[in-house]
Specification:
Elements lengths: L12 H5 L2 H7 L5 E4 L16 E4 L2 H9 L4 E2 L3 H5 L14 H12 L2 H5 L2 H15 L5 E3 L4 H13 L7 H11 L7 H27 L7 H8 L9 H32 L1 H9 L4 H11 L6 E5 L3 E3 L2 E3 L4 E4 L1 H4 L35 H18 E6 L4 E2 L9 E3 L1 E6 L2
Parallel strand pairs: 2-8
Antiparallel strand pairs: 1-2, 3-5, 4-12, 5-8, 6-7, 9-12, 10-11
The protein binds protoporphyrin IX containing FE.
The site of protoporphyrin IX containing FE (HEM) has 25 residues, from helix 12 and helix 16.
């Protein structure tokens, strides 16, 4: 690694595989200008990203994410792209406030908690399908790829065998599949066409008083706040949003969590001895191996951050992953520590009005996975090199993650 590293090199494969030392090389220059990369839902090979500011330090990332008036989440490249635009993620106020009020009721903690038995059943079935004991298993190939997609398919009342479609739609939109623009467009079109058909059918059945599967879709259709509810088009886009926002990040997160168990035996043993440690493990894994690395904002006015003169219309890449490794916020960031007093301040669910709506669902899937691993296996051992994906800096996650689950005696 050379100290002449600059922001225009942030999309290199070796950086995507392990970005943290490179962020350290750039911290003193942050915010620095000249990084070009693709927001989710755009088309590499078709769309052309604009050069953007890179914001790395915790306080600056928090300031940008918090100041939604000065930094818009609307993304002109995404809006002009052929990919569907997302609900909430790409909305500013006042539309965001209206939509978030309804969506927050859909995702209220008691509703998510009531999904525990269903998620547990999906976790158990997925482990039965994909795990064997005492032989190497690449958990990224099957379990981590499929569990979040199966959960989504269940939540939308889709046929169970469409779990693979959900997976394909999510990886195409989130850019973690290395596919052609034509394939990406085809997956986006297929997803939107399916949800349009499916939502219409479900709405018709509900109008006739019939019971319908899919608790999340039902809630999108039925939930009202102050007499306001989502229209057909909004429900379809919410299905698309939850699919791409919920399946892909959670797949990477589950892989990163299993890597922590495999690579830090003391963490696994501590969890086996005291399952109450899960909360601390969950949060520190979100900081240490948080999937989302950066998301873009667009400045709505001229504004100064540190020595950077950001102009109205400039793109700003908010590096949540770099904030998680800022030594000013998290001392000794390369150490996995369960006793950080500010563990909840990790940025992996974002910050401010766009903070992740699906966090309780991601936590449910992670908690259920960890609990069942502990019940079923004595040990999670590393069985070969963990290989980090190097296709997109959007998410830090594993391409392959071979482990051996040791049977209980
Ligand atoms: C470990 C898993 C997950 C991670 C790390 C994660 C991360 C994030 C981040 C960083 C944001 C902020 C985006 C921004 O500031 O522009 C976000 C927003 C969002 N997430 Fe998640 N997410 C996860 C799982 C989920 C799940 C399971 C769902 C839903 C089923 C979901 C739905 C959403 C939605 C709808 C938003 C937009 C919220 C808004 O703009 O008001 N996420 N997520």
């Amino acid at each position: 690694m050379t100290t002449a590293f600059s922001v225009d090199q942030l999309s290199r494969p070796e950086v995507i595989r392990n970005p943290y030392p490179y962020y350290d090389l750039l911290r003193d220059q942050s915010p620095a200008f000249g990084y070009r990369d693709y927001p989710p839902g755009t088309m590499p090979g078709v769309d052309e990203p604009k050069p953007s500011w890179v914001v790395l330090n915790f306080d600056d990332v928090a300031a940008v994410a918090w100041d939604h008036d000065s930094f818009s989440s609307r993304d002109s490249l995404q809006e002009e792209s052929s990919a569907p635009s997302l609900m909430l993620v790409n909305h500013d106020r006042p539309e965001h406030t209206r939509l978030r009020k309804i969506a927050a009721k859909v995702f209220q903690p008691s509703s998510i908690k009531s999904l525990t038995p269903a998620v547990d059943a999906l976790v158990a079935a997925c482990m039965d399908d994909f795990f064997v004991t005492d032989r190497p298993v690449d958990v990224m190939a099957d379990y981590c790829a499929m569990l979040p997609s199966r959960v989504m398919a269940f939540l939308f009342g889709m046929p169970a065998e469409m779990d693979r479609d959900v997976r394909n739609w999510a990886t195409a939109f989130m850019l973690s599949a290395d596919i052609s623009p034509q394939e990406r467009q085809a997956y986006n079109a297929e997803a939107m066409a399916f949800f349009e058909r499916h939502v219409k059918e479900q709405m018709d059945r509900i109008a006739k008083g019939e019971d319908t599967p899919g608790p999340l879709l039902n809630a999108f259709i039925r939930t009202e706040v102050d007499g306001d509810s989502l229209c057909f088009e909004e429900i379809v886009r919410f299905c698309m949003t939850a699919t791409v926002a919920g399946a892909e990040t959670t797949s990477f997160y589950l892989g990163n969590l299993i890597a922590v168990f495999a690579d830090f035996d003391e963490i696994w043993q501590g969890f086996v001895d005291d399952p109450a440690q899960f909360d601390a493990i969950y949060k520190e894994t979100l900081r240490f191996h948080g999937p989302p690395q950066r998301l873009f904002r667009v400045a709505t006015r001229d504004i100064t951050i540190g020595s950077a003169e950001i102009r109205r219309g400039d793109w700003v890449a908010c590096f949540f992953g770099a904030a998680n490794y800022d030594p000013e916020a998290f001392p000794e960031p390369y150490e996995f520590r369960l006793n950080r007093k500010n563990a909840s301040r990790h940025m992996s669910f974002g910050y401010g009005i766009h903070r992740c709506l699906g966090a309780p669902l991601a936590q449910l899937e992670a908690e259920s996975t960890a609990r069942m691993l502990r019940e079923r296996y004595k040990q999670v051992e590393r069985a070969g090199e963990a290989v980090w994906q190097d296709i997109s800096l959007l998410n830090h996650g594993l391409q392959s993650n071979p482990v051996i689950f040791r049977a209980r005696d």
